[in-house]
Design brief:
With about 40 residues, this protein is an all-alpha fold. It has one helix at about 25-40.
């Protein structure tokens, strides 16, 4: 969803967690997307 961009506005840190069955590639993809959102909002 496009509205998640505002969730990270002003955040100083963001935690990402997953369950045992969450693949590492998915966690890395989520982290990459969040990083892109934050960098675009600077």
């Amino acid at each position: 969803p496009y509205d998640v961009d505002n969730w990270f506005a002003g955040a100083r840190s963001i935690g990402i967690t997953g369950a045992t069955s969450t693949p590492l590639w998915l966690m890395e993809e989520v982290a990459g997307r969040i990083k892109a959102i934050v960098e675009n909002n600077l």
